[in-house]
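Sequence dictates fold. Below is an illustrative record:

_____
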Amino acid sequence: MKFDSSTERLAAQLKKDWALLKRSEESLQISLKKCKAIGIKNVYSFEESESFDALTSKFGRTSDMFTQKILKTAFLILREEAQTFVDRANMAEKLGMTSSTDSILQIRDLRNSIAHEYETDALNKIYAGVLSLTPTLFREIMTAQKYFAKRKWI
């Protein structure tokens, strides 16, 4: 694919954002391992609670970087329009950037729950969801990585 100057700028931005995403993914992996060892409990020590807070924060940041920056930039490079998040999730699956619209929507829903949940009782559900969906987020990032590498975007 021949790039014009604006597409070249977008491709450069995608590479830059991809590097940030990979660093975020590495940090999320470390937190995931730590929190898996802690497990889901009724009561957490302060340190355990901090570990899960870090995990949920990293999950939210990594998922935002992937869905809100990386995929949006890829659509701009391709000159594809997707107005809503659901449209972007569907298009990403259709193009082969991701493997599952449902997975992307679940990741986004969990990210939104993390950002807007203040009830202590609901935190265990969020913690369990993050433990469960983080490997899915990693798989979707890997699917996108294969797509982008094939096109020599990253």
User: Anything to note?
Assistant: The chain has one domain: 5-150.
